[in-house]
């Protein structure tokens, strides 16, 4: 029975969030394909994980029997998040762009699960696990656009998810999501609608393909 780790980080609820709408489509398709599957869900906006602390950080470089009580408590929280990642057969992450990068809550999750010698290093414990990231953004930061140099979401997540954790990374990128709300972007609404529809189609197709891949 397959396990999906689903993480949302948008501060906006439900349909008000472009990333949540697409991850919901992916998850529903996944559950249709895997009706007996397990879904581990974390809403990092509603229930944020602790930001990394000195105790949690230093505990990662010390033997468990040498941990102070403070280190042991902080490290236990990290281990819970790490084990959720390790037991997942697939990972789904909603990563909207805020001020050119990911939400701080998602950064906190990454800081907790990246543990050298376990999830990163020579033999990362979740290596090869497929991860689909819905990287929504209000404008466009695609290659060739004026704001391309300010794209720090895909670049950063490629470095951490694919580089450090060695996950099998794939992106879905709904863009121009602010076009319907900003008068100066009105002429871009058709491009937004095309991007949104493509994102939903990709979410459905990728979820089905992944379900088939894991069932094989």
UniProtKB/TrEMBL annotation:
SUPFAM superfamilies, sorted: Flavoproteins
EC number: 1.6.5.-, 1.7.1.17
Residues involved in FMN binding: 10, 17-19, 136-139
Class of the enzyme per the UniProt entry, highest EC level: oxidoreductase
Domain named Flavodoxin-like fold: residues: 3-173
Signal peptide: none
One Pfam family matching this protein: Flavodoxin_2
Statement: the UniProt record of this protein carries the keyword Flavoprotein: yes
Similarity annotation: Belongs to the azoreductase type 1 family.
Official protein name in the record: FMN dependent NADH:quinone oxidoreductase
